[in-house]
Design brief:
By secondary structure, the chain is α+β, with helices and mostly antiparallel strands. The protein has seven helices and seven strands; from the N terminus they run ββαβααββαββααα.
């Protein structure tokens, strides 16, 4: 499918970018399936995402920091849940790519929590690179900026950001008091 991308500038949240007009075959981030998005997020995060909560919040930011009404919001169907915004579609996508051996999920048990860590396999890395190569420049930059911003914020920072910017998704959270207390909100 050939798409012509109009020259536009978007400014919101962590990113500022410009998409150039092009006629080669490209996808936008909204065209990705949940499985493709999951592979790209793990790939862009360096091949490892440190936990299911982190993965959920990355997917949420990709879907909701974009233009209002983006197709990705509809595909991932986020709703308020125990730890903030949650998408069963993303969970199903991670399960599917794990069964396809594109992602290895390692469970780490600590004193407080059980944590799933997501690693790309060689096959997953090749698929993610192919998908990234198919994205238009705006979508690549958007994905990169969201992931870079999330890395800079860290685990607690990403929770604070989402809970304050999108409070309706924190309504059912079991940790919202701790998150808000961490910065006197």
């Amino acid at each position: 499918m050939k798409k012509k991308i109009k020259e536009e500038t978007y400014t919101d949240g962590w990113y500022r970018m410009m998409a150039k007009t092009t006629t080669r075959e490209q996808q936008t981030i909204g065209d990705l399936s949940p499985e493709e998005l999951a592979l790209c997020l793990i790939y862009r995060f360096g091949g490892v995402v440190p936990g299911a909560l982190y993965m959920q919040k990355l997917g949420f930011l990709i879907a909701y920091e974009g233009k209002p009404g983006d197709k990705l919001q509809i595909k991932l169907e986020y709703h308020p849940y125990n730890l903030g915004p949650y998408s069963i579609k993303l969970v199903e996508a991670l399960d599917k790519i794990s069964r396809q051996r594109k992602v290895y999920i390692k469970e780490q048990v600590t004193d407080k929590y059980n944590k799933e860590i997501y690693f790309l396999t060689n096959e997953g890395r090749c698929d993610a690179q192919r998908i990234m190569d198919s994205l238009d420049s705006h979508s690549k930059e958007y994905l990169n900026n969201i992931c870079d911003g999330a890395k800079q914020l860290g685990y607690n920072g990403i929770l604070r950001y989402i809970y304050t910017r999108y409070p309706k998704f924190a309504t059912k959270s079991k940790i919202k008091k701790d998150v808000y207390a961490s910065f006197n909100y």
